[in-house]
Design a protein that fits this description.
Length: 180
Amino acid sequence: MEKNYDDSKRRSEDLDSVLGFSLKYTSLGDFLSDLTMDHASLSLDKIKPDNTETDLLHLSTVHSAKGLEFDLVFILNATEGIFPSSKNTDTEEERRLFYVAITRARKELYFTRPSLAHSRSGPYYTKLSRFLSEIQSPEKVYELKLVPGKSASQNFFSTKVSSSKTANDSFSRIQDYFGN
């Protein structure tokens, strides 16, 4: 692979990921079906619910959420090495993606991150994404630590992480940064 590709290390890591992903399947057909499904071609405007409920959960990548807005947005894994990615050397492009992600929220915006993560080399403690420190209003943003063994409501929903005012203030600061 090193002879044929300049980015052989990244390709090898990708193959390792595919191998790890494949281990949960017992059927080659199911694995290939999930692997080749083009999730990016499914846009939210084409998905019609079977009922009239409006409280739907939409899972999306940042790229496919461009142009869409939601009352409540969770940005998962807001850690250094993930957001911004350690694989991308263009920090400004990562910052633009972060801007897209946070501007999807109309009312409430939440960030999550594990304090401990695992890689091939073993467990490690994560660091909060540097992008969060660029937008935080300390008086309006709260850090909540989840305690194993407690229910989600005991851990999480006792305090709001942000309100629409916080989100709007944060958006204004980001927009100022980009000159909008």
